[in-house]
Backbone:
C-alpha cells in the first residue's frame, strides 16, 4: 500500500483529487547556450612529468608542432592519463564500462552515440563545426563519425603529407585499436586555420587548455560521459514518455535581435485543453510533438539570457492577445529615470569594456519588449511569442490552473539584463508586493551609482555570499549600475510570481519559476528560484535529472495566491 501511495505522490498515478484537478502548465526553458555542448567533466589533461618526448622540429614526430597541432603529452600510455581514463574500458563486457549502449537515439538522425565508430572531440566538448576543425557535431541531431582508425587519425592533421607514416599517426591508430581513445595535439600558433579553433571572443573569458586539446574517441566514451545538452535532451524525453500529469511546453533562448532577445517557444503546453480536463489524456501524438520540440533545440547561443527569456515567457502566458496588457505595460517610452537602467529615453549604461559596443542606447528601440517577427539580412527573427488565437490552443484551461517555468540550465546568466526593470518595479510597488520576509518591496531608480539602497530583488546573501556577489560584471554586459542590483534576472522572476498576468480570467494568474541546475550552485540561480516562488534543484549526476524535473513539476501544482 505504501508503494502505491508513493506512486501517487510522485505523480505516476492519479488520486481521486488529482483526477479532478486541472493539470498545471509547465514551460521548460532549456538553456541553449554554447556551454551546454560541454562535457560535465572535461576529458583529462593529466600527464606524468617527463613522460612525453621533448619537442621536435618535425611536425610528425612526437613533440612536433606544425599545421596539425602541437603533439605535446599525446597518446594513451602515460600512467597518469591512463589512470584518469580508467572509467572507460573498451574490452570490458560490462556496458557500464564499455559504453556499448547508445545514450540517445530517440527521434534523432544519428545515434548519440554509436559505440562502434570514432568521433572528433576536444577536451571540453565534441568538436563543433561552428568553431573547430575537424568536427563531428554541427546540427545537434546528426553526427559525423568514422568506422576506420586511419581515416579519423589523418583527418586530425588534414591529411597533410608531412604526417604520412609518421610516429604521431602510428600512435593515434595504435591507441584507437587498443584503448578506443587517443589524446591528440594542442591547437597552437602553427596550426592551420581549418584544423584549429576555437577562437576566443573578445567578451569571453580565457579558453581552458581542454578547449584546445584534440581527441579522437570511440562512441562508447561518449555514451558513458555525454555532453550536457545530450543529457538534458534525453532526460526531458524520458520525462515526456513517463506521462506526468502536467501540460508540458518547451522553449529555448532566442536568436540575436539586438538588445532584448525574445525566447523561442518550440511547443505550446500539451495536451491541449480539450484533453487536459476533465479527463487528462497525454496521448502518443502529444508525446511525439513534444519530443520533436526538444530535439529542435540548437545549443549555440553565445550568451545565457535567462532573465530576458523569463520576461518573454511572461508575455507569452499573459492576456496580451485579449487586451494588449503586455503592450500597455511595456511600450516605449518607459523613461526609466536615470542612466543605469534600460529603456527609452533617459536610460543607458556604460560601453562594453571588452568590445566597445555602445551602451547609451540600451533598450531604446520603439518596440523593444513587444518585437514582432521580421527578417534581417535573410535571417528570420521570430519576435516576441504570444498565445495562439485558437481557443483549443489557449494557455490557460481554467482560472484555477497553476503555471510555472522550469529553467534547465548549467550556469548563471550572462549577457542578459535587457528587461524593463523600472516598469516592473513600478507595477510591483503599486500592487504592494512583499519579499519572502514579509517586508514590502522597495525600489528607487534615481542616482543608481551613488544610491546605497536602490531596492529591487536580490536574495544572494541568503546563500552563503553577499548581495554584491550577484553584481558580477566580468564578461557580462550590459549591466545596471546600482550596487546590489546590477543584474535583473531575479527581479524578473519576482515580477512574474507576484503579478496577475491575465485580466481575462478571475483570480491571480501568476507564473512560478523553478531552476534545475546541471552542476552549478550559483547564488544567482538560487535567488531566481526564491524570487520566483519556486524550487532550486542542483543535479550532479545525469541519472538524477529526470527526477529533479519531476520534483519541480510536483511543486508547481498549486497556483500562487
Residues:
Amino acid at each position: 500500500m505504501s508503494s502505491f501511495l508513493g506512486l501517487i505522490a510522485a505523480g505516476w498515478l492519479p488520486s481521486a483529487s488529482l483526477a479532478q484537478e486541472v493539470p498545471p502548465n509547465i514551460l521548460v526553458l532549456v538553456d541553449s547556450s554554447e556551454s551546454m555542448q560541454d562535457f560535465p567533466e572535461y576529458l583529462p589533461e593529466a600527464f606524468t612529468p617527463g613522460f612525453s618526448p621533448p619537442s621536435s622540429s618535425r611536425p610528425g614526430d612526437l613533440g612536433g608542432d606544425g599545421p596539425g597541432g602541437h603533439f605535446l603529452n599525446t597518446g594513451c600510455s602515460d600512467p597518469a592519463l591512463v589512470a584518469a581514463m580508467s572509467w572507460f574500458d573498451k574490452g570490458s563486457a560490462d556496458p557500464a564500462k564499455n559504453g556499448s549502449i547508445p545514450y540517445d537515439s530517440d527521434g534523432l538522425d544519428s545515434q548519440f552515440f554509436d559505440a562502434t565508430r570514432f568521433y572528433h572531440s576536444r577536451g571540453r566538448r565534441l568538436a563543433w563545426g561552428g568553431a573547430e576543425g575537424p568536427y563531428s557535431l554541427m546540427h545537434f541531431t546528426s553526427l559525423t563519425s568514422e568506422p576506420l582508425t586511419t581515416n579519423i587519425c589523418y583527418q586530425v592533421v588534414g591529411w597533410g603529407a608531412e604526417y604520412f607514416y609518421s610516429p604521431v599517426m602510428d600512435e593515434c591508430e595504435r591507441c584507437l585499436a587498443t584503448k578506443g581513445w587517443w589524446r591528440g595535439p594542442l591547437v597552437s600558433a602553427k596550426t592551420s586555420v581549418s584544423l584549429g579553433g576555437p577562437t576566443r571572443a573578445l567578451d569571453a573569458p580565457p579558453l581552458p587548455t581542454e578547449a584546445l586539446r584534440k581527441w579522437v574517441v570511440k562512441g562508447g566514451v561518449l555514451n558513458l560521459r555525454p555532453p550536457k545538452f545530450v543529457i538534458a535532451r534525453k532526460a526531458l524525453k524520458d520525462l515526456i514518455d513517463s506521462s506526468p500529469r502536467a501540460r508540458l511546453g518547451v522553449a529555448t533562448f532566442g536568436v540575436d535581435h539586438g538588445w532584448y532577445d525574445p525566447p523561442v517557444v518550440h511547443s505550446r503546453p500539451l495536451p491541449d485543453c480539450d484533453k487536459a480536463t476533465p479527463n487528462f489524456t497525454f496521448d502518443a501524438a502529444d508525446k511525439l510533438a513534444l519530443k520533436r520540440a526538444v530535439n529542435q533545440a540548437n545549443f549555440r547561443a553565445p550568451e545565457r539570457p535567462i532573465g530576458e527569456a523569463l520576461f518573454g515567457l511572461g508575455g507569452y502566458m499573459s492576456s496580451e492577445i485579449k487586451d494588449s496588457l503586455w503592450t500597455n505595460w511595456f511600450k516605449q517610452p518607459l523613461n526609466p529615470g536615470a542612466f543605469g537602467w534600460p529603456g527609452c529615453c533617459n536610460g543607458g549604461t556604460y560601453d562594453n569594456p571588452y568590445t566597445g559596443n555602445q551602451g547609451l542606447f540600451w533598450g531604446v528601440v520603439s518596440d523593444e519588449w513587444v518585437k514582432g517577427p521580421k527578417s534581417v539580412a535573410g535571417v528570420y527573427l521570430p519576435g516576441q511569442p504570444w498565445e495562439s488565437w485558437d481557443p483549443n490552443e489557449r494557455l490557460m484551461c481554467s482560472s484555477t490552473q497553476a503555471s510555472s517555468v522550469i529553467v534547465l540550465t548549467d550556469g548563471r546568466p550572462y549577457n542578459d539584463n535587457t528587461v524593463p526593470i523600472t516598469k516592473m518595479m513600478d507595477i510591483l510597488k503599486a500592487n504592494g508586493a512583499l519579499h519572502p520576509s514579509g517586508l514590502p518591496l522597495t525600489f528607487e531608480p534615481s542616482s543608481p551609482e551613488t544610491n546605497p539602497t536602490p531596492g529591487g530583488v536580490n536574495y544572494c546573501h541568503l546563500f552563503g555570499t553577499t548581495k554584491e556577489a550577484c553584481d558580477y560584471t566580468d564578461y557580462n554586459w550590459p549591466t545596471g549600475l546600482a550596487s546590489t542590483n546590477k543584474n535583473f534576472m531575479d527581479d524578473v522572476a519576482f515580477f512574474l510570481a507576484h503579478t496577475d498576468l491575465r485580466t481575462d480570467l478571475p483570480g491571480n494568474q501568476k507564473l512560478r519559476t523553478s531552476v534545475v541546475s546541471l552542476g552549478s550552485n550559483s547564488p544567482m540561480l538560487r535567488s531566481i528560484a526564491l524570487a520566483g516562488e519556486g524550487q532550486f534543484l542542483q543535479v550532479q549526476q545525469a541519472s538524477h535529472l529526470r527526477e529533479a524535473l519531476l520534483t519541480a513539476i510536483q511543486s508547481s501544482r498549486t497556483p500562487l495566491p
